[in-house]
């Protein structure tokens, strides 16, 4: 699938100007210590991971820090890479974009952080000074992704991303013992002493992504909302929605453990293996939800036609959840898409989107925009994000952890990897 994305998209695009290097961009090329090694989780090919030895990173730019990773989560979007359904993966790439740790070393121009400090690292790498960063649109940063392929495919380059292929800059991920973090003053969040890694590590990405979904949907007190997907993002969205005073939450999935947790968190649940979503929702939510949130993503095809077309590579992305949401959301309602989408889709009901006056908003999260506010809610005890964590495993068992998470075995919802201490 991944290798066909450019072939599918490029014929649809007008002829583009020559794509040149970005003059102010910083690259993922990292100095390495030839005398010191670390363990990393390396991608070796489709569905194949291995824990390997790599030279430790060194300060490469004066705005860098080196993080000794203490916790690294496996994110649902990591599975896209695991299954090689995303362009730009090279054998040996280190995965992981959700992580926390301790500052091992700091460059001479780092002003806000010091050695020995505990921090959460933003999955999205921002420079802090381009026009997008100045507007807190960090995921559109101009200076942290040198991928010409992304610009050729999508029209622009968006921000770099830790451990997320060379399409997003080729940055080493955090499922490792040590990781280099550029522009540290922008991309780090201090961890208060009284909080554990488990309480805050998801602020790297999914806790902020879930909040981003509510913001995109303009979710308000007293509303009825529906959430497609009870994975970690969807479950945290339920927590935030309850905290914000949403009147009614309907959560849609087919995994019993996830549905049970969604119910425990205060949502009504709909198992789409047992009940068809559209007729059931029309019965239990007359008039439709005020806001629909898609927290699923491109790999989750429900209808036979999408399954077939993805296998035949006639489309890259299945939009089953989005189609249902467009049909069900109130007229002039809001549809928020925070599940990952990547390429092209077929049979998209643009007419209904238009005629119903639906506000459709989507996009990658900017953790730096939200994480200070969300950290306060955690400190105040208004949410407990550890409720979604079901497995804590050593980095050495990461291949097994990916399999558990991917296949939803042993009631796995969220895995935190713990790199070992090395002398």
Automatic annotation (TrEMBL):
Keywords: Metal-binding, Oxidoreductase, Zinc. Pfam families: ADH_N, ADH_zinc_N. SUPFAM superfamilies: GroES-like, NAD(P)-binding Rossmann-fold domains. InterPro entries: ADH-like_C, ADH-like_N, ADH_Zn_CS, ER, GroES-like_sf, NAD(P)-bd_dom_sf. Signal peptide: none annotated. Residues 45-417 form the Enoyl reductase (ER) domain. One of its GO terms (molecular function) is zinc ion binding. Its cofactor is Zn(2+). Belongs to the zinc-containing alcohol dehydrogenase family. PANTHER family: DEHYDROGENASE, PUTATIVE (AFU_ORTHOLOGUE AFUA_5G03930)-RELATED, ZINC-TYPE ALCOHOL DEHYDROGENASE-LIKE. This is S-(Hydroxymethyl)glutathione dehydrogenase.
